[in-house]
Amino acid sequence: MFRLTGPTVLLCAGHALADALPMRVPLRFDQGFWNASFSVGPQNFNLSVDTGSFAVIIGQGLYKPNPTSVQTNMGEFIQFNGANEDGTLMASETFFFVRDEIDFAGVSLSDFLVGNITVGDPIRDGILGLSPPASQITDPNDPTFLAGQSLAQTICSQQSISPCEFGLELKFDGTGSLIFGPMNDTMITGNITTLKTQSNDAWITLNDTAEDSPLLVINDQPFTHIIAIFDNGTPNIIGPIETVRAALLSVGYNISETSDSSGASFVFGTYDCASPARFGFSFPPSTEVHYIDAGANVLNRTADGLICTANILGASTTDLWLIGQTWFQGRYVQHNLNASTLAFADLADA
Ligand SMILES: *[C@@H]1O[C@H](CO)[C@@H](O)[C@H](O)[C@H]1NC(C)=O
Ligand SMILES: *[C@@H]1O[C@H](CO)[C@@H](O)[C@H](O)[C@H]1NC(C)=O
Ligand SMILES: *[C@@H]1O[C@H](CO)[C@@H](O)[C@H](O)[C@H]1NC(C)=O
Ligand SMILES: *[C@@H]1O[C@H](CO)[C@@H](O)[C@H](O)[C@H]1NC(C)=O
Ligand SMILES: *[C@@H]1O[C@H](CO)[C@@H](O)[C@H](O)[C@H]1NC(C)=O
Ligand SMILES: *[C@@H]1O[C@H](CO)[C@@H](O)[C@H](O)[C@H]1NC(C)=O
Ligand SMILES: *[C@@H]1O[C@H](CO)[C@@H](O)[C@H](O)[C@H]1NC(C)=O
Ligand SMILES: *[C@@H]1O[C@H](CO)[C@@H](O)[C@H](O)[C@H]1NC(C)=O
Ligand SMILES: *[C@@H]1O[C@H](CO)[C@@H](O)[C@H](O)[C@H]1NC(C)=O
């Protein structure tokens, strides 16, 4: 049926269009982070898409009240690691939730919980969290504690996307997209790797034994088994300091060590730009190695272009490996909130 008169037609056409078109949000790379446009009431923000955290929060001083905003007395205090381009910065944020009307991916949602940072370190316009649901949404002992609301699940339920899944396809040229719904097979090439992940808090892979846990691979050689969290909101690869030191030394890199005012220590490795080592991960039982793109794995180089710093950070603050956006580049990474899986493949046209 197709009626061509009256306002009903406009409504129907608009609705049909929203259902038929793939829901695709353009992303833009900016100094280690991937920006997406997000509207709250009349305000528009560039938020960092972050599969490593849960809530949507807006940077201190930016979120103005509007006719649709309703304050709550519930909120949270969060510390983020990897808050700057080289991954060494921590950011602490205190925020309170406001119920408001938002627009994202062409979908309007009312009464969505938006975090309003009242005291915090700079985190650009803010963060758009896409982790699996927080295990602790509220705290019976603290009536003011609220972890937030899952943007992905809210969009899935409003748009009837089931299973609830979304993909990130991040290219080498600084463009990419967040796509709701099934993986688009025409965009990928090669094998799809599917990993079982935790159902709460983080896209962290599950293993039954140490032998089936992910492997760090250097120049085609397995280096060590690791516990891996996939997090596109981390700017690089961050691992436990002693393991990273040993990994970088194993390929002859020079180590540079720093510490911050809180006593955390960090290592980076420098190397001759003409002969980089290849760093990647494999996921048993498959032996296929998924390398970090060579270009994305250069954090910086000296003015003469001869000495490079690898974009891999060893930090005393972590026992786990954060597989950040440098590894996502060139891939389509699909996140399924119902099945609790993460699946990925190379982009056909990165
Ligand atoms: C899949 O990706 C191709 C290439 O980008 C695009 O033309 C097509 O519209 C996409 N299909 C869906 C269902 O999103
Ligand atoms: C978001 O970033 C783009 C590119 O830098 C810019 O053109 C746009 O004005 C920004 N939007 C907001 C709301 O800051
Ligand atoms: C966000 O918090 C600031 C500081 O407390 C406040 O001035 C502002 O009105 C709040 N914004 C909203 C939308 O409630
Ligand atoms: C990304 O967003 C930040 C604000 O969060 C803005 O300063 C920056 O210009 C944006 N960059 C791009 C390339 O969109
Ligand atoms: C996915 O989870 C949602 C929320 O729990 C549920 O409504 C939906 O039916 C599930 N879809 C599938 C395919 O399991
Ligand atoms: C894809 O998987 C098949 C079967 O496991 C394997 O033979 C093939 O080498 C894989 N492709 C790549 C590019 O590794
Ligand atoms: C999963 O792998 C990690 C890293 O190898 C290991 O420390 C841990 O014991 C493994 N978990 C189980 C249940 O075997
Ligand atoms: C490594 O350190 C040695 C000794 O300080 C120095 O001669 C060499 O240039 C350094 N190489 C790189 C790649 O940093
Ligand atoms: C490269 O980055 C590291 C870590 O941020 C920094 O310590 C070093 O000074 C930088 N080197 C150059 C040449 O920019």
Please sum up the structure shown:
This protein has 350 residues and is mostly beta strands. It has helices at residues 6-20, 151-159, 241-250, 325-328, and strands at 24-30, 33-40, 43-50, 56-58, 70-80, 91-104, 107-120, 126-129, 138-139, 142-146, 165-170, 175-180, 188-196, 203-204, 215-218, 221-225, 228-230, 237-240, 254-259, 265-272, 279-282, 290-291, 298-301, 307-310, 312-315, 321-323, 331-336, 341-347. The chain is built from four helices and 28 strands.
Provide a descriptive summary of the structure in words.
Keywords: Hydrolase, Protease. The protein has helices at 6-20, 151-159, 241-250, 325-328, and strands at residues 24-30, 33-40, 43-50, 56-58, 70-80, 91-104, 107-120, 126-129, 138-139, 142-146, 165-170, 175-180, 188-196, 203-204, 215-218, 221-225, 228-230, 237-240, 254-259, 265-272, 279-282, 290-291, 298-301, 307-310, 312-315, 321-323, 331-336, 341-347. With 350 residues, it is mainly beta. The chain folds into 2 domains: 2-163, Cathepsin D, subunit A, domain 1 (Beta Barrel), CATH 2.40.70.10; 185-347, Cathepsin D, subunit A, domain 1 (Beta Barrel). Strands 14, 17, 18, 19, 20, 23, 24, 25 and 26 form a 9-stranded mixed beta sheet that branches. It has a 6-stranded mixed β-barrel with strand order 2-3-8-4-7-6. Strands 16-15-21-22 form a 4-stranded antiparallel beta sheet, with no helix packed on it. The longest helix is centred in the N-terminal third of the chain and has 15 residues, at 6-20. The protein starts with 5 loop residues before the first helix and ends with a strand. The relative contact order is 0.17. Mean pLDDT is 93; it is low at 1-18. Bound molecules: 2-acetamido-2-deoxy-beta-D-glucopyranose (NAG) (9 copies). The site of one 2-acetamido-2-deoxy-beta-D-glucopyranose (NAG) has 3 residues, from strand 13.
